[in-house]
Amino acid sequence: MKYLLLVRHNEEAFNKIPEDQRKEMLAESIQLCYQLNGKGQYIHASPLRPEATGTIVQIRDSKAIITDGPFMETKEQLAGYFLVDTQNQEEAIEIAKQIPGARIGTVEVRPVVEISGLPNE
């Protein structure tokens, strides 16, 4: 079963962490990806650019509403993700515990609805 592990943290607080510590967290995340790949659980993972670089698209009354960032209305912003394939939610939670971002923010574990007929399926 596939799970999306959504990593959230406070961007402002993250940017105050010394650069060498942030690089260490990235290296740890990359190492975790290799470990997961060795177990056949890795699908994809990536950090996201800051929230201010994003754009929100909404359609209301057949009209597009485009809003550029920043959107910081919450304490934590979406910072990255891991897409994994595990036997169950407990395995996905065990992986989430190993993500460095869990130490400074939160990791939400969400099951993915798998549908047929998509490209590369």
Write structural notes for this entry.
The chain has 121 residues and is an alpha+beta fold. It has a single domain, classed as Dimeric alpha+beta barrel (Alpha-Beta Plaits), CATH 3.30.70. The chain is 29% helix and 34% strand. The chain has helices at 11-15, 19-38, 89-98, and strands spanning 2-9, 42-47, 55-60, 63-68, 77-85, 106-111. It has a 4-stranded antiparallel sheet with strand order 2-5-1-6. A two-stranded antiparallel sheet has the order 3-4. A hairpin with a 2-residue loop joins strand 3 and strand 4 (63-68). The longest helix has 20 residues, at 19-38. The protein is flat, with a radius of gyration of 16 Å.
List keywords for this structure.
single chain, 121 residues, alpha+beta, Alpha-Beta Plaits, four-stranded antiparallel beta sheet, two-stranded antiparallel sheet, 3 helices, 6 strands, 34% strand
CATH homology-level superfamily = Dimeric alpha+beta barrel
Structural class: alpha+beta
Q: What is the CATH T-level topology?
A: Alpha-Beta Plaits
Average pLDDT metric = 93
The CATH architecture can be named as: 2-Layer Sandwich
Sheet having the most strands:
4 strands, antiparallel
The percent range for helix content is: 25-40%
Radius of gyration: 16 Å
Biggest sheet, strands in spatial order?
2-5-1-6
Low-confidence stretches: none
Reading off the top of the CATH hierarchy, the class is best stated as Alpha Beta
Supply the number of helical segments: 3
What order do the SSEs take from the amino end to the carboxyl end, as H and E?
EHHEEEEHE
Tell me the number of strands.
Answer: 6
Beta percentage is 25-35%
The number of distinct structural domains comes to: 1
| Overall outline | flat
End-to-end separation in angstroms reads 14 Å
